[in-house]
């Protein structure tokens, strides 16, 4: 209760959340559609952002991808140093990962310690906001099936940005998150 930054972040998420009442004028579920060949242009943008080290460009790309691929509401954090980078709401994900799904973006995770630090940081944001699941997206780093991820919190899903874009060629974002969550929980793509 003494952490003003965490309380402020949680309030920002609450204010950005869609109206929970059915038939509300503000809530419209988006059609779930994959990115298809648009993913190629986004991968080129990703490569440029990573090679230039432009964090803002990387976050703009992620926001664009989330909005274009089936998230109902995407709220960006106003401050890079406080809270997760994005809070994402999706009616489709409510029963699987809850709302909002917190998303943290990192350009590079070089070592196992970097992976653990980033995953624990996201886990702290989850606890402060009351969210159940987080998605840690990264430009460069260890494969999500590698030993580097073995000791991370079980409600944090790690995914390279390139794998996100490749997956969104044929699946909408909520479907991809569902599959990633199932693999994280059950150890398979079920």
Give the SSE layout.
Layout: H1 4-16, H2 38-52, H3 55-68, E1 73-76, E2 86-89, H4 94-97, E3 101-108, H5 112-129, E4 134-140, E5 156-160, H6 161-167, H7 173-186
Parallel strand pairs: 3-4, 4-5
Antiparallel strand pairs: 1-2, 2-3
CATH architecture assignment name: 3-Layer(aba) Sandwich
Compute the number of helices: 7
Overall mean pLDDT stands at: 85
Tell how many strands the DSSP assignment holds: 5
Task: Describe this structure as you would to a colleague.
The protein has 190 residues and is an alpha/beta fold. About 5% of the residues have low confidence. It is globular. It has a five-stranded mixed β-sheet with strand order 1-2-3-4-5. The protein contains seven helices and five strands. The chain has a single domain, classed as Restriction Endonuclease, CATH 3.40.91.
Please give a quick description of this structure.
The chain is α/β, with parallel strands linked by helices and 190 residues long.
Main traits of this protein?
five-stranded mixed beta sheet; 45% helix; alpha/beta; globular; 15% strand; Restriction Endonuclease; 190 residues
């Amino acid at each position: 209760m003494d952490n003003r930054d965490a309380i402020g972040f949680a309030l920002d998420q609450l204010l950005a959340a869609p109206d929970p009442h059915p038939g509300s004028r503000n809530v419209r579920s988006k059609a779930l559609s994959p990115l298809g060949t648009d993913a190629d242009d986004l991968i080129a943008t990703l490569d440029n952002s990573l090679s230039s080290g432009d964090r803002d460009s990387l976050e703009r790309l992620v926001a664009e991808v989330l909005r274009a691929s089936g998230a109902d509401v995407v709220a960006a954090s106003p401050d890079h140093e406080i809270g997760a980078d994005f809070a994402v709401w999706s009616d489709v994900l409510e029963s699987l990962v809850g709302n909002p799904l917190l998303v943290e973006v990192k350009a590079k995770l070089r070592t196992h310690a970097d992976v653990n630090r980033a995953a624990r940081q996201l886990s702290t944001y989850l606890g402060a906001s009351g969210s159940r699941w987080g998605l840690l997206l990264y430009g460069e780093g260890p494969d999500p099936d590698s030993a580097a991820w073995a000791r991370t919190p079980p409600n944090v899903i790690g995914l390279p940005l390139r794998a996100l874009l490749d997956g969104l060629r044929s699946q909408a974002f909520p479907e991809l998150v569902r599959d990633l969550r199932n693999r994280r929980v059950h150890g398979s793509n079920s």
